[in-house]
Amino acid sequence: MNSKAKMLLVGLAAVIAVFPASLAWGASSPTLATGAASSVSSSSALLHATINPNGAATHYRFEWGLTTSYGSSSPLRYAGNGSAAGAAKERVGGLLPGTVYHYRVVASNVSGAASGTDRAFKTTGHPPPGVVTGAPTQIGLRYATLTGVVDPNGEATTYKFQYGLTSAYGSETFGASVTPGHGSVQVSQPIDGLSPGTAFHYRIVALHGGVISYGSDATFVTLPLRKRIVHLRARTSPRRAVSRPYVFTTTGRLKGAKSLLESARCTGSVSVAFLRHRRLVAARLVPVQPNCTFATQMILRRLKPRRRVGVRVMVRFHGNPYVAPARARRAWVLAGRR
Predict the structure, then answer these.
(1) What are the angstrom distances between the C-alpha of 9 and each of 17, 18, 21, 23?
(2) Which of 60, 94, 261, 282 is deepest in the core (most CB within 10 A)?
């Protein structure tokens, strides 16, 4: 082989080596367009899109849900590695009737990812019943009344309450009905045969057109045979206030009865009283917070001593249907100068 032939072969090899790289350099992220939904029924729809891979192997999927956060997606599909736009579609099911869904197409290749614009469609039929679990009322030793709200959304709707010792429930009330219409309807059902001093889970459930709606889980505690004993811890600061107005902050917490739900034991009020000898200087009723704590700030405006005096602080929890009253240890603070 002469030198000219060798040079030609080397040049040809260089061109072949560079050519695939030049193809990769020419590729870009996919170009997408979310299409209109078709064949929309009460529980399914056919989603459409066009996808141009722009010269690189591209995969895509559809995303859909009740908001633009979506939440559901199809399996990844292959769109090829061509340079022309092609059609893509996906049938999605398990949808709620009479409900607006958002959707889009997303795709990616070695050059990057892209998202189609958000679009929406509405399934046919009546929307599911709207339900909200309400607060229990008339709680006793062995009974309670469960409440909730039902919106039938234009169709005759049946509802019931599920209840039990856990969020798996296990018991339920007999079904009742709400006439067709739009708007919230307050409903309630009594339950009995419960154990005293026991925590129960419950929720409301409603049904029409074969579609079930579930309210959120809630809890209540039946009244105990005997009220539980708790300890009241309280602290007042500062221990000494030098100048007027004399400002003190009292904080505290209920301790004990941990077998009770906080919603049962952390209710009620605490009275905080400041006394000089037997004379009431200041007092306030303070609600107990859901975490069993309380706090209040007191200004002793009626206290005008000529010299430093001791003031007694008395803190008392007044109890609630589940917990007996309790007192904190008496404390003293000082007000005024020497």
Answers:
(1) 12, 14, 19, 22
(2) 60
Computed from CA positions of residues 149, 155, 156, 162, in that sequence, does the dihedral angle turn out positive or negative?
Answer: negative
Q: What tens digit of pLDDT does each residue of 274-321 get?
A: 999 889 999 999 999 999 999 999 999 888 777 889 999 999 999 999
Indicate the range of 35-44, 166-175, 229-238, 256-265 predicted with least confidence.
Answer: 256-265
Domain that holds residue 260: 231-335
Tell me, what CATH number does 67's domain have? Answer: 2.60.40.10
For the chain, the domain total comes to: 3
Q: Do residue 137 and residue 118 come from a single domain?
A: no
Among 214, 187, 198, CA closest to 131: 214
C-beta of residue 290 within 8 angstroms of C-beta of residue 262: yes
Position 9 scores a pLDDT of 42
Range with lowest mean pLDDT among 4-18, 116-130, 211-225 = 4-18
pTM as predicted:
0.71
Q: Would 177 be classed as within a structural domain?
A: yes
Beta-bridged to residue 205, according to DSSP, are 160, 214
pLDDT in tens, 177-221: 999 888 899 999 999 999 999 999 999 999 998 889 999 999 999
Instruction: Please check whether residue 2 lies inside any domain of the structure.
Output: no
CA distance linking residue 176 with residue 197, whole number of Å: 28
For residue 219, the tally of other CB atoms under 10 A from its CB is: 14
Q: For residue 111, is it within any domain? A: yes
Whose CA is closest to 129, among 57, 203, 255, 214?
214
The token pair at 206 is 């409603």
| Strand residues in 169-288 grouped as ranges (E) | 171-172, 176-178, 185-192, 199-208, 211-214, 218-221, 231-237, 240-241, 247-255, 269-276, 279-287
Rounded Cα gap, residues 274 and 86, in angstroms: 81
Given 105, 122, 139, the domain boundary residue is: 122
